Amino acid sequence: MKTIEQIVERLTATEQTVAIAESCTGGMVAAAFVSLAGVSVCFKEGYVTYSNEAKEKNLGVLHETLEQYGAVSRQTAAEMAAGVRERADADYGIATTGIAGPDGGTKDKPVGLVYVACATTSDTFVQECRFAGDRQAVRQQAVEAVTNLLLSCMSQEGE
What is the pTM of this model? Predict the structure, then answer.
């Protein structure tokens, strides 16, 4: 939670905004943000896009990307973050997509594989994460990872 407090303080001080696109976290990132009073100054909007159709319709993820790489991929995470940033006209867009489990994993994409992404006005950054634990633990670790990535992107942009 401390990370989110830092993010909100920085965004508020710089008059910048963030928008959120979630899949495997199912709204947990947005919920963490809106638990803070005054966040409406910097949090524009959020989407839970669990299905591929929702990723395409609401975030502009390309059908070809989903077909070629799958919903749980570096490419999809990047398009989700860039798409939510553009559609919300926000300074930052962040996204999560992954396999929280307990089912759904494969040899190539095991349970606990999560991609987090942050899109800025100039670039998009994606991290591949491999988390352990049950479904809730994977989702919570994804929230922490995407907020840490956003804080890192904000620090880089501020340099």
Answer: 0.97
* Phi/psi at 35 (5° precision): -70, -15
b/e map 9-40, b = 16+ CB within 10 Å: ebbeeeebbbbbbbbbbeebbbebbeebeebe
Three-class secondary structure of residue 63 per DSSP: helix
Cα 59 to Cα 39, 42, 137, distances in angstroms: 22, 20, 26
Query: For the chain, what are the domain ranges?
Result: 2-154
Beta strand pairing call for 113-119 and 18-22: unpaired
2-154, CATH topology level: Maf protein (3.90.950)
What single DSSP character describes residue 58?
H
pLDDT tens across 147-158, in order? 999 999 999 877
- Structural contact between residues 32 and 147, judged by C-beta atoms closer than 8 angstroms: yes
